[in-house]
Amino acid sequence: MTDDSNKTETPDQSSPETSEGPAQIQRERDEYYELLLRKTAALDNFRKRVDRERTERASAAAVDLIGDILPLLDDLERALDVDADTTTAAAYREGVELIHRQLLDLLGKRGVSPIDTVGADFDPHVHQAVSTEAVADHRDGEVLDELRRGYMIRGRLLRAAMVRVAKA
Predict the structure, then answer these.
(1) pLDDT value at 15 more than 50
(2) 113-168 architecture in CATH?
(3) Is the overall model pTM greater than 0.70, yes or no?
(4) Which residues have C-beta within 8 Å of that of residue 120, sequence separation ≥ 6?
């Protein structure tokens, strides 16, 4: 006695699902190819749009920053137009200090902050040592002098501070 229930049935070779003709296969291939082309074009358009938007945002940020800097330029031009014979050095200094404060305020609004250096321990992540000096009354690695101020922008290094460092 043979058990016919364990036999697996093979699909009928003449059924429409398995006997697709070359024309049907070619139609499906063409549909998939067209779908691929549409998806590729959509991805390419997306990339172009993202690049265009990124460029527009960068341009808008630059225009905004330059617009904030122009009043400082106006103040500098007014300071330069002052008659040197009638103005004292103190008046010039006062004008330059005003412009300096305005510029620091503008940078602060943009998230830029100066790096504290003098008296701090040397940190190679934010300081650039230009020279070292043997000094008895300072600890090893202490920043003695700032040659060029460094700046951070929103917690990231914008420019390292150039410093002189004590060496024990």
Answers:
(1) no
(2) Roll (2.30)
(3) no
(4) 142, 143
